[in-house]
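Record format v2
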Amino acid sequence: MYGVIIALMPALLVSFYFFGIGSAIVCATSVAACVLFEWAINKFMLKNERTTICDGSAVLTGLLLGFNLPSNLPIWIIIIGALFAIGVGKMTFGGLGNNLFNPALVGRAALLVAFPAQMTTWPKVGQLTSYLDAETGATPLSIMKEAIKNGDATVLDRLPDSLSLFLGNHPDGAGAMGEICALALLLGLAYMLWKKIITWHIPVSIIATVFVFAGLLHLANPIYADPVSVVLSGGLMLGAIFMATDYVTSPMTAKGQLIYGVAIGFLTVVIRNWGAYPEGMSFAILIMNAFTPLINNYVKPKRFGEVAK
Amino acid sequence: MNARTFRIGGIHPEENKLTHEVATQVAALPKQAIFPLSQHIGAPAKPVVAKGDKVKVGTMIAEAGGFVSAPIFSSVSGTVFKIDTAIDATGYRKPVIIINVEGDDWEETIDRSDKLETVKEHPELTPEEIVSRIKDAGVVGMGGACFPTFIKLTPPPTAKAECVIINAVECEPYITADYRLMMEHADEILVGLELLMKGAKVTKGYIGIETNKPAAIDLLTRKCAEVFATSEYQVEVVPLKQRYPQGGEKQLVDAVIRRQVPAPPAIPVNVGAIVQNVGTAFAVYEAVMKHKPLFERYTTVTGKRLQHPGNFLVRMGTPMKDLIDACGGMPEGDNKLLAGGPMMGKALTSVEVPICKGTNSVTIISDDEAVRKEPQPCIRCAKCVGVCPMGLEPYLLAKLAEVQNWERSEQEDVVSCIECGSCQFTCPAHRPLLDNIRLGKTTVMGIIRARAAAAKK
C-alpha cells in the first residue's frame, strides 16, 4: 500500500503545481474523510478490535478519489464521496480485501451520478490561489465528444498538442487534478514495476487496446480523435496504472489480467465515443471489477506438468 | 554454459549457509541410541531383536514391514535396553528400539577400509544384485523424504527409466551436509551414481548443483571427465541457477531435462527420470561396495546463535541434544528447533529426538526470527500465485481449506502441492497459507484413499 502511495507522489506534486490550493484542499479533505470513515465504521459499526487505518489502504483510497475530482469541488461533496468510497465501496463488503469494486471509483461514480454539474466542470490549470472560484474550461475529452456529436473533425483542432497533453501544461487545458500529467503517472508506473508492486499486464493491455481501437476508428473516420491524444487524455493513464491494478479487484493470473485489461480498454473507448459521458475509464473499470471473480474462476494458472515436453 | 532452472514460480530465501567451509567432524557415540521403527515412507519396520539381546554395529534390528518399507540397522554395539515408544520428529510417541551403547564393535562383514572400489573391478554386480544389496542395506532417500531407494530403481512396467539425476541442489537455507559430502567424498559419490545407473539399466546420468557451490561444480566436473571418459556411461554436471525449491524432485527434473512430471499419481520415472540425492548415492556406494548398511549419515547442525555450528558424520539414533552440545550447547533464550531447514523442516518438541535416516539438518532458529507476524486480510495481490512452483493458487486452496470445501479443493489440485512453503514465505499479509493448504491436502488425500478403498469392495 505504502509503495503505491509513494508511486502517486509525482502526480500529487504535479497537481499542486497546476491547481495550487484547490488541489491541496481537495486531496487533504478526501484523505482525511476516508481515514475517518474507515476508523469510525470499524469501531462503531463493525466493532472490530483491530484498527485497519495503519495499513495505508484508506489513505490510498482517499488520494485516488481526490485525484479523480475537479479541484474546485466543495468540501461537503468530497465528504459524501469519501463516505460512498469507504462506506459503500469497501466496508459493506467486509473491509479490506473483500470489496468487489474499487472503492475510490465507487465514490467517484456516486458523485458523478448525484452531482453531474459539479463533477463535469473542470478548472483550468495555473490558478494556484483559487479554489471554489476557479475558472473552468473544456477538457480534451469534451472536445473529442463534441467532434463526434457534431460530426465535425475541425473541432479537434482545438485539442492541445500531444506534448502538452503528455506533460499536462496546456494553458487552456482542464481536467481532474491527478490525471492531468501523463509523465508523472508513468513515473509512478516505473516505480511500481521496479519495486515489483504490480506487473506490466494490466496497464500495458489497457493502453495498447485503447491505442489500437482508437487508431482504427481514427483511420476509418477523422471525427474520432487521433490515438495518441486519446491515450494521453482524461483518466486513462491514472485508471490504467493505479485504479485497474488495485490488487483486490483485479484478476489473479497473468492471463486473466490481460483479458481484464483488454476488456477495460475496449469498454473505455466505447463509452467515450458513444456513451453519455465524455469519460469512460472509471465505468469500464467498475464493470470489469464485477467480472473479476468470474475471470478468476475460469482462468487458471498453467499447472506444473501441463507444459508440453 | 548458462545455468538452467525450473520454469514455474520459485523464490530466493536468504542462504545462511553458515557451515559451508566447516569440515565434517565425526560425532561422538551416544550413551544410548534410539531407533524409531518408522524412518521411511511406507510401513514401519518390524523389530527382530528383543530386550537383552546383544547387537553389533550393523546388526539388523528391524526388518522391512511390507513392500514399501526398509529394514533398520543398529548404528552402535551394545544391549537392547527396551522396545518402547518415544517422541520422534512428528511430535507423536512412536515405537522405538532403545540400545545401551557398549564399546564400538562392528559386524565383520562390513569393509571398513578406505580403498575405493570401482564398478569395473566388480563384474559380479549385475543390476539385480545391485538393487537387492541396496534393498537389504535399508537405503532410503537421504534428502528428507526417505522413500525406499530400491523401489525407485525398479519402475512400474508402464514407465521406462532413461536417466538418473543426482540431486545435489541443496536449495534449502542453512544446510550444507550434501555440499560437505561432495567435497569430501566425490569419488565414492560417482561410483554410487554408476551403481544407480547400472541398477536402473540406464547409461545417462546428471548431477544437478546450484551455482552457489562453484567448488563442488568444478570438482565433480573434473572427476566426471576422468572417471567416465572411456566408460559406456555419460554423466553431465548441470549447474543450476539458485532458486528455491529446486531440490524438489519435480522441479529438478524440469530444470535438468526440461520435462514436467504430470500431476499425481505420476512420478518422475513417468518422464524417464530417476532422482536420487547425493547422500543416497554415497549410501548406495557403501551398501553395495562395502557391505555397510545405512546407519550413519551427514548432518548439519546450524543456527545463527550456535557457538560452533558444524557438519557431522553421525550415527543414527544419536539424540539431537548430543550434537547441539557438541556445537557449544543450546543458545540462551527461546529457540525453535527444526529437523531440516527453515523452509521444509519440522519443528520439534524435544531435543531428545534422535537423528534418523532423513535428518539432513538440525536447525536452531532464535525466537525473534521464528515468531510469526500477525496475519492481515488477504488483498489478493497474487504474489503466492506467482511463486507457486506447481502452478497452483495458494490463496484459493488456503481459503477452501478454511471453509472446509474439500470437493472444490480436490478440483483445484490441492494434492499437487509439494509443501515447499514458497507461498507463505512470500505472503505480504503473513497469512498461514501452507498450514491451511496442508490441512486441505491431507484431508483430500484421505478422501481419495477412502474412495479408492470403497471402489475395491
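The first strand of chain B starts at residue 25 and ends at 26.
The two ends of chain B are 55 Å apart (CA to CA).
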